[in-house]
Amino acid sequence: MVQKYQSPVRVYKYPFELIMAAYERRFPTCPLIPMFVGSDTMNEFKSEDGAIHVVERRCKLDVDAPRLLKKIAGVDYVYFVQKNSLNSRERTLHIEAYNETFSNRVIINEHCCYTVHPENEDWTCFEQSASLDIKSFFGFESTVEKIAMKQYTSNIKKGKEIIEYYLRQLEEEGITFVPRWTPPSITPSSETSSSSCKKQAASMAVVIPEAALKEGLSGDALSSPSAPEPVVGTPDDKLDADYIKRYLGDLTPLQESCLIRLRQWLQETHKGKIPKDEHILRFLRARDFNIDKAREIMCQSLTWRKQHQVDYILETWTPPQVLQDYYAGGWHHHDKDGRPLYVLRLGQMDTKGLVRALGEEALLRYVLSINEEGLRRCEENTKVFGRPISSWTCLVDLEGLNMRHLWRPGVKALLRIIEVVEANYPETLGRLLILRAPRVFPVLWTLVSPFIDDNTRRKFLIYAGNDYQGPGGLLDYIDKEIIPDFLSGECMCEVPEGGLVPKSLYRTAEELENEDLKLWTETIYQSASVFKGAPHEILIQIVDASSVITWDFDVCKGDIVFNIYHSKRSPQPPKKDSLGAHSITSPGGNNVQLIDKVWQLGRDYSMVESPLICKEGESVQGSHVTRWPGFYILQWKFHSMPACAASSLPRVDDVLASLQVSSHKCKVMYYTEVIGSEDFRGSMTSLESSHSGFSQLSAATTSSSQSHSSSMISRWRFC
């Protein structure tokens, strides 16, 4: 498995030239890096005007590895080749390094870059990336990988310290300024040659081609190299090391790398607004910084949020009055660590009455709104206290808890709430203080604890009776001034006292079922299943030409091909024949086919957009400006993998996949809308129709345009 590392952007508040002067002092050896024994210059090139300076060195490293492993490998030192390409004109330094030792067994590549800060030319940015691929190593692959990662991360931590050490050394020597490179003066006798040199240097790549090095780095060999893409981008798409420390906390180099790589993946696949860095970091922490696992649960959560419009719950949903009067919970100041404090008087709350009056789904939605408010308060407290705060503290008072609270439907609702919160708000609970736990509490804990993540359970502190008033109790976590009055504190707590919900507010099981269905079907999205040989199709009738058909769909399972067709005549409704292709149904979603098998493409209907292949996990938004009235058919079709081009025989994996029923089924979640041309302004980034519920969802999404028929499509993997 290839291990990758990507650093945040490290900012030195010193000019580029001064940083370069400090950097050069690391060679030929650096006492601050004990493993760096020495280096020899292999090749060196300087352009005539001095703007380009390329040095290739062979570096000798004494890797801290077990002596037995070194003996088996037959080496005492490891050699790397490092090529530094300085462009004083552009004020950049690119560093490329790769291993020479065991290059047929281990592949190590590193790329570093020093550039001028994009917003302050007197500051310097540094960024590095690396990859490690161990093909084989005498059966010690895992050991070598651990040693390599340990050595590399320790050197990363020292990197900034080393530069700052040499900066101080320069200052002690009285060197606090290094002039920028300026072109040499031109004399009449050398005007022609200097002009030629300037043209050559202007087109010079930062990294000199290997062919040029082999030819002795001559000027003729360097006349037309190709320039690589720059590494450092704008501050909007890069994470600054100081920003991480200020707003996200102290992370190890590998944790920083996981955050940056997952964030980059989102930027590449989600062409628009991406989740906040704090949100990404929570999912990484929940899966011990395993990027693949974190990405999976985060994408599932983001799809869930999108489907149920959780992002808008605080603005669009008002809790029923029953909840406001009888739900004994609310926000109350903050704890000693600056975390928002939520107080829940569970023992005083009539859970049975709330479930009978409101239903399970209304309670769940209210808890979701509490969590959304908690995220908002964490952001505010981060700004107020000047340190990262990404979780809150919950204080649960169980005085009054009895067997009534163990009513089965109430416990079922509680377990459902725990399941949803665990899946979609990981690492948001910083500490849970359970006070005045009665004798019945162990019964409730036995029912609930299996559904709580191990990491979350470690944050629970349980106090029986008045133990919370003693050493190690409430005062260790909450200031005395804000301890609620019902816990013998001095602060008036505005949390509702709860109490029994009047039975006159109870509703029948049928009413609650309809209400629950209404709450979670208040979504603009529909689900559909797509099978091999059975696409899902929807019909849109257009009366006025130049209308705009918009769509937004997620590919939740499998790969599909998305098509748009136009027909002058309406397709026949699906037949009910159980043997016909039109009758395919699925418990996981609808499947409707409209295009009759006798229809011919080009005669009965025509394709108005190029087919779009969408992979599992992608989300697609787009629009099509219609040219003619008539009937438009949006089709999601099963995408079959192409046969292996290298051989006419099928691969084993393909055969096995074809035998699995699940491999022939895809699932999509979609929404479509037709907008009049007068309501459609610009592109998918500005669907400003007052009649459009879709416009709010797509307001922050950037779409890339396609030339055919004014269609704009953007996609990202979020399922």
TrEMBL record:
One of its GO terms (cellular component) is Golgi apparatus. Residues 521-674 form the GOLD domain. One of its GO terms (biological process) is innate immune response. It comes from the Eukaryota. The keyword Cell cycle does not apply. The keyword Cytoplasm applies. It is found in: Cytoplasm; Golgi apparatus. PROSITE patterns: CRAL_TRIO (PS50191), GOLD (PS50866), PRELI_MSF1 (PS50904). Keywords: Cytoplasm, Golgi apparatus, Immunity, Innate immunity, Phosphoprotein, Signal transduction inhibitor. Pfam families: CRAL_TRIO, CRAL_TRIO_N, PRELI. Residues 3-175 form the PRELI/MSF1 domain. SUPFAM superfamilies: CRAL/TRIO domain, CRAL/TRIO N-terminal domain, Supernatant protein factor (SPF), C-terminal domain. PANTHER family: SEC14 RELATED PROTEIN, SEC14-LIKE PROTEIN 1. Interacts with RIGI (via tandem CARD domain); the interaction is direct. Interacts (via GOLD domain) with SLC18A3; the interaction is direct. Interacts with SLC5A7 (via GOLD domain); the interaction is direct. This is SEC14-like protein 1. The gene is SEC14L1.
